C-alpha cells in the first residue's frame, strides 16, 4: 500500500487540489527554457558565422581569382542566412540579453568583409557599410565594429609579409596616372595612429590586449621592411623573417606569421 502524505498534525493531507504556486513556477520554468533555447540558437549561429568568416579570410588574396570569388560569395550567402535565422531572437525588449552571444560572430564577420573590402579598394570599410552587409535587422555595435578592425591588422600583417616573401616588395595600391600608390605599411601605420587615440581603459570591452597585438603586427611589417631594405640582397627568394629572433625575454608570444 502506498504511503499517504500527512500534514503537520498527522492527519491525511488533501492532495486533490494543486498548490496555488504551481502555475506561477511553471511559468518561470517555461520562461527559463525559452531563454536558454533562444540563447543556444544565437550561440550556435555565432559559431557558424565565425567559422565561415575565417574560411573567407583564409581564401582572400589579391587579385581574387573568379573561382575563389564565387566560393567567397557562396559563404557570404550562408552567413546572411544565419543572421536571418536568429534575427527574430535579437529583436524586442530583451534583445540586450543576447548581444554577447552574437558579438563574436559579428567581429569575425567584420574582419572578413573589411579585409575583402580593403583588397578590392584599399579603403577601410565604414560602420554603415559593414552594417548594411548584415541582414535581418541585426544591429552591429560600434564596439564589435572596432574589435573586428583590430583583428584586421593581423590579416594585413600576414598579407604584407607574404607579399614581401613572394615578390620582394610590399603590396601597393594603384596610384593616379599609373604611378604606384600607398603601400600596406602606410595603411597599417595610419590604423595604429587611429587605434592609439582610442580610450581602451574600459574593462568591459577588453581592448588593451588587442591594442598590444595590433602594435606587434605593425612592428613585424616594419622590421620585415627594414630587413628587406638593409639586407635584402642577402636574402634567398621566398625568405620569411623570423620574428622570434631578438625577442625580449619575458614577453608573451604573440600570434605571428
Explain how this protein is built:
It is a single chain. This protein is an all-alpha fold and 257 residues long. It is 59% helix and 3% strand. The protein contains seven helices and two strands. The chain has a two-stranded antiparallel ribbon. Strand 1 and strand 2 form a beta hairpin. Helix 1 runs antiparallel to helix 2. The longest helix has 38 residues, at 22-59. It is elongated, with a radius of gyration of 27 Å. The N and C termini lie far apart (75 Å). The model has no long low-confidence stretch (mean pLDDT 83).
List descriptors.
2 strands; mainly alpha
Brief summary of the model shown:
The chain is mainly alpha-helical and 257 residues long. Helix content is 59%, strand content 3%.
Instruction: Identify low-pLDDT runs.
Output: none
Q: What is the strand content?
A: under 5%
Kindly report the average pLDDT value.
Answer: 83
Extended strand count: 2
Largest sheet: 2 strands, antiparallel
Determine the N-to-C terminus distance: 75 Å
Q: Strand order of the main beta sheet, please?
A: 1-2
Counted by DSSP, the helix tally is 7
Helix content: 55-70%
